[in-house]
């Protein structure tokens, strides 16, 4: 058994590429060498447990950790990885359309609901007329607006938009207004008493208990489907049985317990087959091209 971790993409893409080329080999391509999986979260306990479980099953695994979100897909496309696990379907759709690529989802991992927090409140009672802070980056902003749609607080001019913008909000028909801010500033707004939609990654840093949310999106809803996190390969490697084994391993009790610990119990395991995930991706890519 041979487990290895490689650091890539810490400060420069050139460094990441050089490090990865050094670990590439024809052995991995023909299934004889280690299976190389890329992530941006190797420091989380779930990945440690994942590696331990791989070792117990005699899976030759090489984890490559990246310091940014753009390089893992590039590395996969250039055959420097066999699979990656760091992104949701919407991010993958944006990458494929922007890069004219066809990276393919082959298994799901989990979804982390996006939630609305209101200091010292435990429900939506009294929120009508309030202004709500939400992340202003395109991906999270659209999802955050849809959280408010699901909560019955925002009405869109055109229902069912995957990534609505502030311009798509019917202000007269809505019960609240929004304040788009940098994602890191949503916790500041919360601390000042403003209701805020806060990304899960900022909660721990701000000492906010994720279980105090007054509302969160439904991970089973169609609106949440773009945010399912997925295992991704090149299209021609989608049937690699080693990748299927990794997907199965991720859903083992040991790994899922660690995922729950990392997310403070907010993550929701998702088991969707490759065909279902591809159908969602196709829909997202079409919307991205038409945007």
TrEMBL record:
Gene3D superfamilies: Periplasmic binding protein-like II. One of its GO terms (cellular component) is membrane. It is a lipid-anchor. Pfam families: Lipoprotein_9. The keyword Flavoprotein does not apply. It is found in: Membrane. Keywords: Lipoprotein, Membrane, Palmitate, Signal. Belongs to the NlpA lipoprotein family. This is D-methionine-binding lipoprotein MetQ. The lineage of its organism: Bacteria, Bacillati, Actinomycetota, Actinomycetes, Mycobacteriales. The gene is metQ.
